[in-house]
Structure formats: C-alpha cells, structure tokens
C-alpha cells in the first residue's frame, strides 16, 4: 500500500532536524490556529476516569448530538476514527469497483479506492478557470455511452483549491449520479468555514448521497481522530458492519460532545478566519510574482513564480522550520504550487517574511 504525502508530519521533520516538535511552525496541515476549545480540554480531563471502560461502540450520545445539529435521524450517522477511517471503509462496504474523483483533491480517496480494487478516473478543475469545480466535465463523463461509475467523490470546499461547488451545482451532479444508480460522496471536512454551503439538507432527497465530516480540523484536534458519515440508515449500517469495534475512543467521544455544543468557539473561529485569511492574502500580494487562488476554507493555494519550484521552496522553508504543503506531485496541479494553512497573525508574518526571502525579496 503506497502512502500518499499529506501535510502535518511534524514528527519526521523534527527527527530529521533533531529539534523538538514544538519548534516547528506547521502550515502544511490546515488546523484551526485558535487551538482546541477550552470546553473540549475540560471535557477530556473529566473523561479521563472513563478510560477503565471500553468506549461506547455505538457512540450513542455523540450521535444524538450530531443528529440534532445535522437535523437527521441518529441512525443515519456513523462516527469514525477520523473521517479517514470512513473514507477507507466506504469502497469495500459499498462494493465500489469504478469511481470518478473530482480533482485536483485530497489523495486519500484514490488510495482507499485502489486499495479496495476500484478503478479511478478523474475530472480535474482547470487552472485557467481558477479551479472552478468541474461540474460540466463530470456531466460530460456521464453522458459518454457505456461510461458509468459506482461512486463519485467530491470534496467541498475542496482541498487544496479552496473552491466550493454551490448547492445548485451539487444538485445537478446528484441528479446525474442518481440516474446512474451511483453513490455521491461529499466530503465536507472544511464546511465549518462556510456552513451555508453544506449539502446536508439535501440528503433526504438523494438517498444515494453521503456526507463526510471531520472534527479534527475545525476543532484543532487531529491527534484525537474523529469524523462522521451521514447517509441513508441502511447504507450507513452497511458501512458500520465493516468497521472494527471500538474505533472511536472515549476521550474523542466526550471531547466531541463538548466542542459541538460550543457555539461561541465556532462563531469566533469563523470570524477570526475571515479576517486573518484576508490579511494573509494581502501579505502574499505584496510578494510579487505569486498567484493566489481565493479560498472558502482555512488554507490558501498559491502559485509561485514560474522560475521557482515548489519542492525547492518547501525545502528552504522547512530548513527555517516552517512547513508548507508542496502540491507539485498532486495530480492536476503544477510544480509551482504550494498550500499554506492560515495561522495566527504573528505566525503568518513569519511565513511571509521567510517566503519573501526564499523568493529573493528583502
Ligand atoms: C478533505 C479532507 N478530508 C478528510 C481528511 C481527513 O481528516 P480526518 O481523518 O482527520 O478527519 C482530510 C485531512 O487532511 C482532508 O483534507
């Protein structure tokens, strides 16, 4: 099984540079820079006494809360050890043998699909169209005689382009996928930054559509591993049948319950991100030669000047203990592209200064 490259491997860099993890500024994983909410940390401390028991294999209480927030029935939800676990369960559980992936996107879909023996085709958003989601190309694929997919994977907002497919367009896609009797899997790992775009309210209309969510990014707890899948109860049950027992530990369940109820943190995070993302984008614009793609999430895709190479710039920044995501190997992107997470103003200033000097600016 080949490992795709993901952001966030601070441990490897720390080992290579013989420095503590705490000395690295990680812009390569898109984690809420405000850190985990205090309500979540308190919940973990309170839940520590529970570790003498196995976790609730049904995540019953957490599912009640999620059901209420998502306005669905609790039996439409499956909680997983990060949404990555669910991405890997889906192809086997739904016996997917052919899939269409809307790219360029998170590479774990391809890995999960190929591991399960599925073929994978792509429709890539185009750089010339500022990576507008490739709805038309997807519809064209469906119209090709004999072309049929068991499943379509859409990441919305999309990692790494930051683009959102609006609900009308998703509806068009869902209709086409339903006609083929396929599954439409919409990954909303970054939807908390633009909740009005969620397709969750469309689930009842499209029983073959499923929504994936993650709590790790928005609540800044990727080390705890928690995500969930929402879809028709019968289908969710099929996926659950493939899941190992006790995948989701009790601390993750308790902390999730607490953070989901922390509406003040959610509002503060969205307001913060809007302001800080704009400020960071303005900073990048002062470094001439960069092309920025607008983003609805907490990261920005950047195209470096043609004379540079993303791998080299990434390595030079890493030497300064700043990690960014080199996107040059991602199918559908160019060798000048990097993705950076939006962090705090102070951290972002460090990145701007370091990138400026890497590109030969004072
Ligand atoms: C689009 C997308 N989906 C899902 C995941 C997996 O998140 P997790 O397994 O932490 O829930 C990631 C992680 O980077 C991602 O970018």
Walkthrough of the structure:
There is one protein chain. This protein has 362 residues and is an alpha/beta fold. The chain folds into two domains: 10-30 and 264-358, Aspartate Aminotransferase, domain 1 (Alpha-Beta Complex); 38-262, Type I PLP-dependent aspartate aminotransferase-like (Major domain) (Aspartate Aminotransferase, domain 2). It is built from twelve helices and 13 strands. The protein has a seven-stranded mixed β-sheet, sandwiched between helices. Strands 9-10-13-12 form a four-stranded antiparallel β-sheet, covered by helices on one side. Strands 1-11 form a two-stranded parallel sheet. Bound molecules: pyridoxal-5'-phosphate. Residues 82-84, 106, 155, 159, 187, 189, 214, 216, 222, 227 line the site of pyridoxal-5'-phosphate.
What's this model, at a glance?
With 362 residues, this protein is an alpha/beta fold. The chain has helices spanning 10-17, 38-47, 60-70, 83-93, 108-115, 135-143, 167-179, 233-241, 250-260, 263-286, 310-319, 345-358, and strands at residues 25-26, 77-80, 98-103, 119-124, 151-155, 183-187, 209-214, 227-230, 291-293, 299-303, 322-323, 325-326, 337-341.
Topology readout:
Elements (H helix, E strand, L loop, with lengths): L9 H8 L7 E2 L11 H10 L12 H11 L6 E4 L2 H11 L4 E6 L4 H8 L3 E6 L10 H9 L7 E5 L11 H13 L3 E5 L21 E6 L12 E4 L2 H9 L8 H11 L2 H24 L4 E3 L5 E5 L6 H10 L2 E2 L1 E2 L10 E5 L3 H14 L4
Parallel strand pairs: 1-11, 3-4, 3-5, 5-6, 6-7
Antiparallel strand pairs: 2-8, 7-8, 9-10, 10-13, 12-13
The structure holds pyridoxal-5'-phosphate.
